[in-house]
C-alpha cells in the first residue's frame, strides 16, 4: 500500500512511479540506498532514453515544478536529436533541473546513458520506501560509475561501496 509521500525524494519517486518511468538512481542517493550514509545535494537519474519514457519522465518532473537551470524547454530533452546536439555542441552530460517546490533537491538527468541501461536495469537494486518503489543502479554498476567519475568524493564512495560488497559477499568489482 502506498502512503502519501512526505519528503522531497519520496514525492519525486512517487511521481516517476505513477508515470511508469523506467529509471536508475545513480550518484549519492544510490550510495545511501546501498547502505552508506552520506550527504548529497542532488538526485542523479539515468532514464531509459526511449522517447516515450523520456517524455513521461520530464512530464512527471514538470508537474512537480521542475525546470531546466539552462534557458531551454524541458520537453526538448525528450528529443534524441536535440540531446545529441547538446552533447556534441555544448558538452552536456546532465541536464540540471530545479523546482521552487523542492528548493533543496536538484535533479540531474543524464543526457546519454553512462552505462548500458537495459543490463544495468536488470541488475538494479529495487527498494520500497513508504510503499514507493525506487530503482537504483546495482552495486557493481554504481562502483563502476563512481570509479569512472574519479573525483575524491566518488573514490571515497567506491571504498565504502566495496566494503559493503565484501560484507554482503558480492564481488563489487566492475
Structure overview:
This protein is of the alpha+beta class. It has one domain: 2-Layer Sandwich (Beta Polymerase, domain 2), CATH 3.30.460. The chain has helices spanning 8-18, 28-33, 51-63, 80-90, 117-122, 139-149, 152-168; strands spanning 23-26, 42-47, 67-68, 94-98, 106-110, 125-129, 132-136. The strands form 2 sheets. It has a 5-stranded mixed β-sheet with strand order 1-2-5-4-3. Strand 6 (125-129) and strand 7 form a beta hairpin. Helix 1 (8-18) packs across helix 3 (51-63). The longest helix has 17 residues, at 152-168. The radius of gyration is 16 Å and the shape is globular. It starts with 7 loop residues before the first helix and ends in a 6-residue tail after the last helix. The model has no long low-confidence stretch (mean pLDDT 92).
Question: SSE layout and pairings?
Answer:
Blueprint lengths: L7 H11 L4 E4 L1 H6 L8 E6 L3 H13 L3 E2 L11 H11 L3 E5 L7 E5 L6 H6 L2 E5 L2 E5 L2 H11 L2 H17 L6
Parallel strand pairs: 2-5
Antiparallel strand pairs: 1-2, 3-4, 4-5, 6-7
Helix pairs in contact: 1-3, 6-7
Question: How many structurally independent domains?
Answer: 1
Low-confidence stretches: none
Largest beta sheet, briefly? 5 strands, mixed
| The CATH top-level class label | Alpha Beta
Write the CATH architecture name.
2-Layer Sandwich
